[in-house]
UniProtKB/TrEMBL annotation:
EC category name: hydrolase
Protein name: Phosphoesterase
Signal peptide range: none
Organism of this sequence: Carbonactinospora thermoautotrophica
Keyword tags: Metal-binding
All copies of domain Calcineurin-like phosphoesterase, residue ranges: 1-152
Chain positions covered by the region annotation Disordered: 121-141
Family label: Belongs to the metallophosphoesterase superfamily. YfcE family.
Needed cofactors: a divalent metal cation
Gene3D superfamilies in the cross-refs: 3.60.21.10
Entry's EC annotation: 3.1.4.-
SUPFAM superfamilies according to UniProt: Metallo-dependent phosphatases
GO MF entry, a single one: metal ion binding
Amino acid sequence: MRLLLISDTHIPKRAKDLPARVWAEVGAADAVIHAGDWVDVAMLDALAARARQLIGVYGNNDGPALRRRLPEVAYAEFGGLRFAVVHETGPTRGREERCAARFPNVDVLVFGHSHIPWDSTAPNGPRLLNPGSPTDRRREPHPTYMTVDLADRGITAVTLHPLPG
């Protein structure tokens, strides 16, 4: 099973559309997880139309129309692993401990907000993944997205993909 993780797309504020490579991944993925800051309902509708399965949450830049359609926290199970998705996890310092306490029954937590890719595991807690942003790199060298490959009730690969820009 292959998951596509994206966040902080900020379309159409930061870009007119997702990069072509990301759209290709949408078509290839078994599920797409978006960790918030869509900005416009049109992106939600476009992803929902093209993804086999879409899990998403709203972010701090998402207005009432998106908040009516998306939860603050989403839960799903993929490949026998329990996933949670949330936009914000707070400051870097203490993140693992804070997330382990907030999400005690989760194997993987996908989050966004910072536009900074992240991959760590909380002691006795979930693996924390932030795919960065495919459209707004901020202080990072490249815009990014992530893929997660699952098999035999486990993660076989987490890949951060840099994009031009």
